[in-house]
């Protein structure tokens, strides 16, 4: 089970985008990298295509390392480390590691 999954809200904790919150758009578990909405923007030159008839310079998000972000707990709305806990039915679930929260994410 992955600790960071698509559509999680995360807080960037290092780098040029430190302190920014964003939604996870894509996860690359083999490389341990994620793409966060509005973070690590790069410019790419593109040729004219049917989708972009004019071509030009396009800004898009580049992947960042997963260790550079913290998941935002939906209940306590704080950045938290994520733990994995086995439930009674044998399945695994992610949970908030704050002492006073402990809610399943």
- Percent helix: under 10%
The chain-level structural class is mainly beta
Compute the CA-based radius of gyration. Answer: 17 Å
At the first level of CATH, what is the class of one domain?
Answer: Mainly Beta
Strand content: 35-45%
Distance between the termini: 13 Å
How does the overall form come out from the CA principal axes?
Answer: elongated
Low-confidence parts, pLDDT < 50 over ≥5 residues? Answer: none
- Average pLDDT works out at 92
Strands, total number: 10
Instruction: Examine the secondary-structure arrangement and name the CATH architecture of one domain.
Output: Roll
Quick one: biggest sheet? 6 strands, antiparallel
Please provide the ordered H/E string of secondary-structure elements.
Answer: EEEEEEEEEE
Number of helices in the DSSP assignment: 0
Strand order of the largest sheet: 6-3-2-1-7-8
CATH topology of one domain: SH3 type barrels
What does this structure look like?
With 105 residues, the chain is mainly β. The protein has a domain at 9-79: SH3 type barrels (Roll), CATH 2.30.30. It contains no helices and 10 strands. It has strands at 9-12, 21-28, 33-36, 41-46, 56-61, 64-65, 69-72, 79-80, 82-86, 92-96. A 6-stranded antiparallel β-sheet has the order 6-3-2-1-7-8, with no helix packed on it. A two-stranded antiparallel ribbon has the order 4-5. A two-stranded antiparallel ribbon has the order 9-10. The chain is elongated. The mean pLDDT is 92.
């Amino acid at each position: 089970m992955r600790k960071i999954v698509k559509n999680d809200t995360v807080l960037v904790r290092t780098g040029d985008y430190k302190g920014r919150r964003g939604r996870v758009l894509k996860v690359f578990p083999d490389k341990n990298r994620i793409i966060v909405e509005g973070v690590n923007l790069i410019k790419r030159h593109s040729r004219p295509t049917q989708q972009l008839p004019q071509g030009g310079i396009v800004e898009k998000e580049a992947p960042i390392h997963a260790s550079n972000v913290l998941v935002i707990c939906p209940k306590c709305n704080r950045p938290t480390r994520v733990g994995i806990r086995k439930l009674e039915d044998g399945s695994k679930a992610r949970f908030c590691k704050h002492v006073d929260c402990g809610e399943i994410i």
